[in-house]
Amino acid sequence: MIRVGLFFVGALLLFGYGSFLNLAPFEFGRVVGLYIATLFVVWQVINFVAFRSAPTLPILVGGALIIAGGAVTTFWKAG
To answer: For residue 20, how many other CB atoms are within 10 A of its CB?
Structure first.
């Protein structure tokens, strides 16, 4: 029963991710970093909920760099 629930949660996340990817108002090359940052956050939430494992300091620092890099690649305007 738990596997069925996890399957549907995974399918819902994949559908949401695909919808987010296709409906973004930016071209794909600009938002790749933002998608990777979003996946990082989702994976950490899933890891905490499913395994009750909080991210360690190195994971949080790496995640902050991933999120910052995703924001820069998405919102940077070349001068």
So the answer is: 13
pLDDT at 79: 67
Instruction: Kindly report, residue by residue over 35-48, the tens digit of the pLDDT.
Output: 788 888 888 988 88
Q: Give the number of other Cβ atoms within 10 Å of residue 37's Cβ.
A: 22
- CB 49, CB 6: distance < 8 Å: no
* Alpha-carbon distances, residue 76 vs 12, 28, 56, 70 (angstroms): 31, 14, 30, 10
- Do the beta carbons of residue 37 and residue 71 sit within 8 Å? yes
Residues 53-63: tens digit of each pLDDT: 999 999 999 99
